[in-house]
Amino acid sequence: MKKVENAIQDHYPDDYAWCYGCGRLNKSGFHFRTGWDGEKTVTVYQPDEVHMAIPGFVYGGVVASLIDCHGTGSASIYLHRKNGYEIGDGTEPPRFVTGSLKIDFKKPTPQHVKLTAVGRGEEIHPKKWKIVTEVYAEETLVATGVVIAVVAPSSFTTK
Amino acid sequence: MKKVENAIQDHYPDDYAWCYGCGRLNKSGFHFRTGWDGEKTVTVYQPDEVHMAIPGFVYGGVVASLIDCHGTGSASIYLHRKNGYEIGDGTEPPRFVTGSLKIDFKKPTPQHVKLTAVGRGEEIHPKKWKIVTEVYAEETLVATGVVIAVVAPSSFTTK
Q: Among A15, A64, A157, whose Cβ lies nearest the Cβ of B65?
């Protein structure tokens, strides 16, 4: 997939659209966008030149950020569908926070190519989803990740 | 600790000083700096205003990045000392890459305060160190992390 056409982040309420990883209103951020690809979820992102570990290779913290927001975005998509809704149908999607994040770096991630995070979600509790993600640089698997995403507490935005 | 005076990243060779997380030569990066604090290692960082999850709280990907570079920097410090050297003694420190990264987010991380990553390192193989880290926002534990850091292969800079 070259581009995610219909992303859940496009439909987060404004209060939740400031994330440095995936917020459409954050001018400085990565703007990760996550949608369906068949029964899986996908986020496509090409890091900037400055996002390097050393020249030629992508910084692991950017890969971690991609997996993080892909995880919370995927959880939102899965729960939204479970609730009977779809991305962009006019209903407000649920918003998740990250409970835990585990990443295994398989190979150095080359710069100057698109990264594709592909995920599968599984409900492990009514308010908790596990998203297992693989990140590819073109066809090469460079990292795998597991995110435990938790429905954001209502207090999160009222503090 | 308010500021790390003597950081290992100040002494990485130039080829390894471009990291978006901790490279002194990367003008756009976080500039994480890691040094000793007694027998532990410490990295102090105050996220920028844009590094938010939602207004008022720090983006988890920035906390993950802090734990990542704190891990590789700490591994470098520990191995350097094991080899008989200290930060800034004129010898080139060893450079690590991240093999895996595991983070548990304990509490939402408030913005506008300094974050302090405190770590302990343990050699688990001659080329592999485990760094267990706690991240505090002022006095509050907000995240814990485990990094498996691996000595960077010589091929890493010659590609």
A: A64
Neighbours of B58 (CB within 10 A): 27
Smallest CA–CA separation between B95 and chain A, in Å?
A: 11
Residue B15 has pLDDT above 70, yes or no: yes
List B35's β-bridge partners, or say none. B42
Contact: A50, B29; criterion CB under 8 Å: yes
Residue numbers in B near A19 (CB within 8 A): 52-54, 59
Chain centroid offset of residue B102 CA: 14
Give the tens place of pLDDT for each residue, A14-59: 988 999 999 999 999 999 999 999 999 999 999 999 999 999 999 9
Query: DSSP secondary-structure letter at B91?
Result: S
Question: Would you give the distance in Å from CA A50 to the centre of its chain?
Answer: 21
What is d(CA B10, CA A68) in angstroms, rounded to the nearest whole number? Answer: 29
Percent of residues, chain B, with pLDDT higher than 70: 97
CB contact under 8 A, A52 and B99: no
Q: How far is A15 from chain B (nearest CA, A)?
A: 7
- Length of chain B as a residue count: 159
From B16, B103, B157, residue closest to A100, measured CB to CB? B103
**B159 has pLDDT over 50:** no
ipTM of this complex prediction, to 2 decimal places = 0.96
- Whole-prediction pTM value? 0.97
Domains of chain B: residue spans and CATH: 8-151 (3.10.129.10)
Between CA A128 and CA B91 the distance in angstroms is 48
- CA-based torsion, B111, B48, A63, B158: positive or negative: negative
Using the beta-carbon criterion (under 8 Å), do B50 and A69 form an inter-chain contact?
A: no
Cβ contact, residue pair B59, A19, below 8 Å: yes
